[in-house]
Amino acid sequence: MKLFAVIFFLIVSLIYPQKVNFFGKQAPGNLMVGKTANISSVLLDGKNIPFDDGIFVFGFDRDDKGTHTIKIIFKNGAGKTKKFKLEKGNFKIEKINSAKKQFSSPPANELARIEHERKEMKNARRRVGKINSALFESGFERPVKGGKVTGVFGSQRILNGKPKSPHDGFDIAAPKGTPVYAMADGVVILAGKNFYYNGNFILIDHGLSLSSIYLHLNKMFVKNGDRVKKGEKIGEIGTTGRSTGPHLHWSVRWMKKRINPESVLKIGQF
Ligand SMILES: [Zn+2]
């Protein structure tokens, strides 16, 4: 009977391997991917997060601090817990004292349009997170080949003592017409046309609440609901919306957390 129990346990552990591999860095603004098998549920700080069989993704916001806990419950009832102690965030803070305005406030006759677009964007963000499969499974890649990095994630300007909201994306300047590719497989949630701030832009849901957005495009080659592949040409670099020259503003989110796109590229394949 005892031998039977040992053999049974061995078989169970072979069927249900409980090794979990984590990809990514435990730091503010970083994305992480967990890979294992036979998941029954995953919790981040006690709250259920989406998973797809053996894959889950989570991330830390720019301003997240402290220690966070991932708990995985497997189909055989076993559990595994891992703690992530975040490094200190290291973001560029720029103090500017200038009488010059960076950008003038939008004119009064545009305010209604801006409000309408804000609501459309909010509704689009709400539609993200309904895909319970890891469409991003084949990994991540840079949406522009070459170009010049003109803005990094998390940087913040303090203008005349007043902190401005931190930059939530990664800016790549390149000539108008340069192709823009999807960073991973996904579904187009919104291909927005000529928004006051964003210009022409594409919001993609990559599954498990991971999304990316591409702003200021010249042309767009996809429409709402389209299924896209990693590396598929979705648009062209432009300077539509509130932009000072041809560049791509690329942002990534997991749930509502602002993720550094560079951390996504560092994961690459997993
Ligand atoms: Zn930007």
Description:
By secondary structure, the chain is mainly β. It folds into two domains: 2-85, Immunoglobulin-like (Sandwich); 93-267, Glucose Permease (Domain IIA) (Distorted Sandwich). Helix content is 14%, strand content 40%. It has three helices and 21 strands. Strands 10, 13, 14, 15, 16, 17, 18, 19, 20 and 21 form a ten-stranded antiparallel β-sheet that branches. Strands 1-2-6-5 form a four-stranded antiparallel β-sheet, covered by helices on one side. A four-stranded antiparallel β-sheet has the order 4-3-7-8, with no helix packed on it. The radius of gyration is 21 Å and the shape is elongated. The two termini are 42 Å apart. The model has no long low-confidence stretch (mean pLDDT 94). Residues 151, 167, 169, 171, 249 line the site of zinc ion.
Count up the domains.
Answer: 2
Strand count, sense and barrel status of the largest sheet are: 10 strands, antiparallel
Total of DSSP H or I helical runs spanning 4+ residues: 3
Tell me what the CATH architecture of the largest domain is.
Answer: Distorted Sandwich
What would you call the shape? Answer: elongated
Radius of gyration, Cα only, in angstroms?
Answer: 21 Å
Unreliable runs: none
CATH superfamily of the largest domain: Glucose Permease (Domain IIA)
